[in-house]
Description:
By secondary structure, the chain is mainly beta.
Amino acid sequence: xxxxxxxxxxxxxxxxxxxxxxxxxxxxxxxxxxxxxxxxxxxxxxxxxxxxxxxxxxxxxxxxxxxxxxxxxxxxxxxxxxxxxxxxxxxxxxxxxxxxxxxxxxxxxxxxxxxxxxxxxxxxxxxxxxxxxxxxxxxxxxxxxxxxxxxxxxxxxxxxxxxxxxxxxxxxxxxxxxxxxxxxxxxxxxxxxxxxxxxxxxxxxxxxxxxxxxxxxxxxxxxxxxxxxxxxxxxxxxxxxxxxxxxxxxxxxxxxxxxxxxxxxxxxxxxxxxxxxxxxxxxxxxxxxxxxxxxxxxxxxxxxxxxxxxxxxxxxxxxxxxxxxxxxxxxxxxxxxxxxxxxxxxxxxxxxxxxxxxxxxxxxxxxxxxxxxxxxxx
Length: 378
């Protein structure tokens, strides 16, 4: 390999308000309480083994969170876990995807299956597709006639039409910028007029109320320090006055209660973060949320919105000192204080807006290796 992939996936492998708006908001804040979120650690009995770079999503069919695989510091895993809002459980399946980390999965509401794709097993970049059936609690390997390039750390998310979409990833040599959609039995390549620059390990989530996909950060040869939105037809480069510090392997999920996409943590220049941000679609901006408590800083955690519990749930991840198996929920709290002051956007090199689909660089620059962590056995 050009570089050790676990280094890539492990560590590699908002708000500007005008003066009059600020005054109006402060006045309303004084008159009525507002709901701000806070993180609370859950104490499930017998939690799963610690891990990072797991695949995790909510399955409405079984009404449980489903998590798969990851890396525990020694081994690549292929166990299937479920969380019912109170406890984690390991699910015994007749078959399962091979062990891997940095795969991604999401729910396809048309076929009513969870779709899993990609990852890295210590030696190979993976391009197999697996389907999780929440009614039988079993995995089935799909046999599509077409499929995306085998990659690690792709972005997999619900399309506004309910299908599962895939963008980007890293194939061992290039960051990808192709986009695919799962139609229930095969992958179809999409060709939006504009797409984000090629990248992997970006934070992505879909506002299922409005159908807007939000993607931020990641790893790339071209500057990934930007926010993109997708409406089911094309991608748009946003220009928020304030946005999070550039991070890779951050966690994101849409929270209907907060009416926005929540982003947490991620690695940034070798330092893992524990900040919580909210993307406001109406204002097209990021707001940093000052939660009274927070999960410890980490990257590679699983995060999804639990429709039954009506909470964003976070599990696992890693920092410089090891791997996590803690479970957190984001809950609303009432307070009369106004919205926290935004953190100024970090200075970065401006990124031009591509007018057409950009092409991959012929010779990619060396992958960043921000964390000097030991290389796991192959």
